[in-house]
Amino acid sequence: MAEQFKEPVVDRVYTLNLGPQHPSTHGVLRVLLDLDGEFIVKADPVIGYGHRGHEKMGENRTYKQFLPNASRMDYLSGLLYNHGFVLAVEKLAGIEVPERARYIRTVCAELNRISSHLLWFGTYVMDLGGFTPFLYAFDDRENILDILDRVSGSRLTYSYCRFGGVCNDVDAQFVDMTRAFVKRLRSRFPDYDNLVTKNVIFIHRTRGVGVITAEQAREFGVTGPNLRACGIPYDMRRIEPYEIYDRFDFEVPIGSNGDALDRYHVRLQEMEQSCRIIEQALDKMPGGPFWNEAAAFKVRPPKGEIYFGFESARGQTGYYLVSDGSQCPYRCHIRVPSYGNLHVLTEVLRGTMVADAISILGSIDVVIPEIDR
Amino acid sequence: MGNTDGSDWLRLVVGLVIVLAFSQLNALFLVWLERKVAGHIQLRPGPKEVGPFGILQTIIDGIKLVGKELITPATTDRKLFPIAPVLVFMPVLVGFLVLPFSPELIIRDMNVGLLLIFAFSTFSVLAILTGGWASNNKYALLGAVRSVAQNVAYEIPLLLAVMSVVLMVNSLQFSQIVEAQSRVWFIFLQPVAGIIFLICATAETNRAPFDIPEAESELVAGFHTEYSGMRFGLFFLAEYTNMFIVSAVATSLFFGGWNGPFGFSLGIPGIIWFLLKTYFLIFVIMWVRWTFPRLRFDQLMNFSWKVMIPLSLANLMVTAIVVKLV
What is the CATH number of the domain that holds A116? Predict the structure, then answer.
């Protein structure tokens, strides 16, 4: 009987263990590839190498104590996670937020989104073998880190938002630096186009590679730029506007084919849209208090539960919090976009080559600690 | 090589010593140059701490590599594994024997010099295959297999491009090929062959965008994944010495060797012209590496079989007809 369940032994197929230590798996991802020559017969992502138990930590800490954890899940868009958690708790506990704080948060969140996309741009082209754009992108990203460092005190794992506001006010220099950065980034887009977007080799490596159909995207719960590249304009900032995103004029860029090139274009256009949001927010930013500080202490939401979804750099992220009326959440679950985005690989990688596997994995833009959390 | 009196032996020994010293120093210099070029292309200064402009950096790195333990992983092939790095350097050294640095400075001006240099450069593929196979590592094997396929595919257009030059000169001897360009360099008469040669030479030396045998973002380090210490160092030095050789061959075949442009030497000695042009070509190869992403394996093959080979064949045909008519 047992023989029936054995896989047929095919001599041609061998297993390549891609990761967990590999230059292009961006963290500790392991993908078991069954290969026939260079062609992939089966791909099986193995996750969990970076599990730290963030959800359980959330249940054993007060809301305020858990705040720094939020930015450690997706370390590339930490401020967005931080922002999302604050929003979720504010909604659950009914905390008032001053207008100025909302604008400051939006500007910083969009800056963080750009920095995440810039890093992706650099590492993606590096996955394809081009080293120079990586350093150009990091040069630009450095400006964002400097700006956010001035206000939040950290360069990567920001814990800038507080329940009811932000921990530091921004000054005129912040506004100047941000405006200068937006101007600089816009002047760099033509360079990126000339160096990468119009490059024949780059187009050959990405066009028609790793096509995710809209159907597959729905089945696997793919969100974010990967979903929008399939032609579905699904962006939490537009679908369920949170914070003050309904006040800004911005577009949701979409692709048409769902291939790696579309994902690339969507992310590059999103950076431009984030620039637009930042400019509008800076123009409209009101004065007044930046923190409803009294509300930030002793956060004790009433009994109840909430799912709060927001758009991080990689897709729809959500906090599901259940409150039993105490100062710690009874349950803290986090929906991370990379989980669904990664597992669509099992479908997409089949029949492609090893070199494409790297290209596709890079184009999907997964952050492993976010999946493992 | 029938003449083996005392002076000839002396010439050979002196030549070998010079070649060994030059090839090592040259490789160290090129590694430094590569890092400097890459640095400036990428908006950063490159090495600058050790020595003036960081020129001693690679020497220090070399000493570090020599001092490192030669790790032989348990599952490797005991005999083949240590041979591969030696094997990869041997053909590179032979190449120097026939390179025409200047009219006086050719160690051995053989009548089959061109044939010899290409015959031996093919050996390096064998070394890479040996290294990849003996490593008993899937990444290394994939890299080695890719390397063989790539070298076979790119050797054909390379040799066809060289043949067009040979047809024009009627000789395989380097000195005669260079003499023939004393007025007009062959790059102006054979632009297609020249460009094909440069592209194929980049592929032959496994340089980006044709560096798929070692493609670090895919295959970790390709065929030399398991090599450490100076064994890795030999692969590394061989790559840079190879780069010098293909650039030197390109200089001799298409850029007039020791000749100045259009017969004007401008009072500069031949060897300086030769080295200037060679290092310029090396710079171009580096420039390409730090600008372009990598091709995919099948695209690389298609490019060779569907574009380069037909093009070089057509070029050879046209050359043959023109030479016959003129």
Answer: 1.10.645.10
Q: Do A130 and B138 touch (CB under 8 A)?
A: no
Q: Please report whether residue A1 resides in a domain.
A: no
A129/B293 Cβ within 8 A: yes
Number of residue pairs across A and B with CB atoms under 8 Å?
77
Q: Taking the CB of residue A239, how many other CB atoms lie within 10 A of it?
A: 12
Helices (H), B255-326: 270-289, 297-302, 309-325
Q: Is residue A330 part of a domain?
A: yes
For A251-306, the pLDDT digits (tens) are 889 888 888 899 999 999 999 999 999 999 988 888 888 888 777 777 888 888 88
Q: Where are the domains of chain B?
A: 74-325
pTM score, two decimals?
0.84
Question: What is the model's pLDDT at position B217?
Answer: 66
Q: Does B6 touch chain A (CB under 8 A)?
A: no
Q: Do A129 and B38 make contact, defined as CB atoms within 8 angstroms?
A: no
C-alpha to C-alpha distance for B118 and B129, rounded to whole angstroms: 18
CA dihedral B75→B76→B77→B78, nearest 10 degrees, is: -100
Contacts of A139 in chain B (CB under 8 A): 43
Q: Best of B37, B199, B217, B297 to disrupt the A interface by mutation (most A CBs within 10 Å)? A: B217
pLDDT band at B215 (very low <50, low <70, confident <90, very high): low
Q: Are A293 and A242 in contact (CB under 8 A)?
A: no
Q: What is the dihedral of CA B12, B18, B20, B22, to 10 degrees?
A: -150
Expressed as residue numbers, the domain containing A88 is 6-372
Q: Which residues of A touch B149 (CB under 8 A)?
A: none
pLDDT in tens, A313-336: 888 898 999 988 888 889 889 998
What CA–CA distance (Å, rounded) separates A48 from B200?
Answer: 44
Q: Do A23 and B296 touch (CB under 8 A)?
A: no
Q: Which two tokens stand for residue B183?
A: 């007025």
Which of A139, A204, A205 lies closest to B43 in CB terms?
Answer: A139
In this complex, do A129 and B294 lie within 8 Å of one another by their Cβ atoms? Answer: yes
Report the gap between the CA of B47 and the closest CA in chain A (Å): 16
> Chain B within 8 Å of A139 (Cβ-Cβ)?
yes
| Chain-chain contact of A136 with B43 (C-beta, under 8 angstroms) | yes
For A102-150, what is each residue's pLDDT tens digit? 899 999 999 999 999 999 998 888 888 888 888 889 889 999 999 988 8
Residue B230 and residue B63: Cα distance in Å, rounded?
9
In this structure, is residue A335 part of a structural domain? yes
Number of domains in chain A: 1
Instruction: Measure in Å the smallest separation between the Cα of B40 and chain A Cα atoms.
Output: 10
B188 interface with A at CB cutoff 8 Å: no
Roughly what angle, to the nearest 10 degrees, separates helices B57-67 and B6-41?
Answer: 110
Q: What is the pLDDT of residues A291-320, one digit of tens each?
A: 887 777 778 888 888 899 898 888 889 899
| Beta-strand pair A165-166/A161-162 | antiparallel
pLDDT digits (tens, 9 = 90+) for A211-260: 888 888 888 889 889 999 988 888 888 888 888 888 888 888 988 888 88
Neighboring chain A residues of B43 at a CB cutoff of 8 Å: 135-136, 139
Is this prediction's ipTM beyond 0.90? no
